[in-house]
Amino acid sequence: MTSFIALPVFLLVAIPFATCAVPVDFTTYTSCADRCDTTGHNPELPCQCNQKCQEYNDCCSDYSGTCLTCRGRCNLSYDDDLPCQCNSKCDKYDDCCDDVKDHCARMATVTDVELATFSEDILSNDVNNCGSLVSLNTQGSTCFSCTKDAAPEPLLTVRTEAYQKPTISKLLPLHNNYVFLTGQPEVVTNDEVREETEFLDAIMTTPAMKKAEKFLLDKRLIVSGRRSGGGQNNAAVRDAVQQIWFGLYSRENRTLGSSGFEHVFLGEVKNGQVSGFHNWVFFSKEEVNSKLNYRGRIGTVVNLGAKGKILKHKFDWNNREKPISSMFVGTSPEFEIALYTVCFYARPGARCPVKLNGKNVNIQTHYMNRLGNRYVASAFPDI
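^ Poly(U)-specific endoribonuclease, sequence as received from the core. Prediction below:
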């Protein structure tokens, strides 16, 4: 990553808060997008987005519609940088946004049974599944504190056809788009924006993502606008997926050096330790490139029949240990994003009970708050 100028539109607002050698024209920032806060007046900006702006009559024109809304913020934990809240306790503390009932009234109606039905449905409709194209050699068992390498051979053998699946072929170019050290800034080039767009284009039309889109809209986990003809504007789901997975935030030194996609579908290193790394496609490529050493399974492998497996394991990446991790093996990227996204909204920051091939499985998600928005911090099968 070499340039900080070619950021995608949804990240442009991060520039004023990032360290950058390119001079910034603050006069162009006339929107509150990604700027809702209570940190006080910033004289370099032409309009303000803090709680005092209404008192001083210097709010940006979209302040109310951006900062005083629960759109996309339902069940977000309390954040004192926000002028109003959208969680279950806001009534008690009298700090709810005015539209909390419009956007969040049905959040609690997502039942465990509905999550189980949804997860089985998207697994059976995982059209780019590679369960029959990937073989596992789990070898010996190990544990979190074990030092012995219980697996002298690689874990995965992947047939070439797997990498030629439509969505996986669009996933592969993204592997080179990230700096794995969380303390270093991610700078997005035009080519990387194009690759990200092509990947989203590919997954959003698949049955798994279409079913996730319908579930999220039907349950009002994401609230869309309306077209003039009365139909829902389902671009709201794509916009939300793009933001929560590809939006940049900081894990270290206030550096915009991380995203949910990088953390889950690739991997990161913070303070010398491997974090994230929950996708079999990247795992297999790093094994082939001799950058990863699989060291054994932990516990029992969950068999998803012809659709793949779920594995808990230990490995070294670039000579750094990940003492315990888990991942789906053989499932498509759209299946994982669909499942994780629904759990991210339906059970934010908590275990999300699903059912896969008749087996009860928990999905664990974590989120990161930044300037009024919520992003995927991590997502993985908790077995």
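Residues 1-25, 226-233 have pLDDT under 50 and may be disordered.
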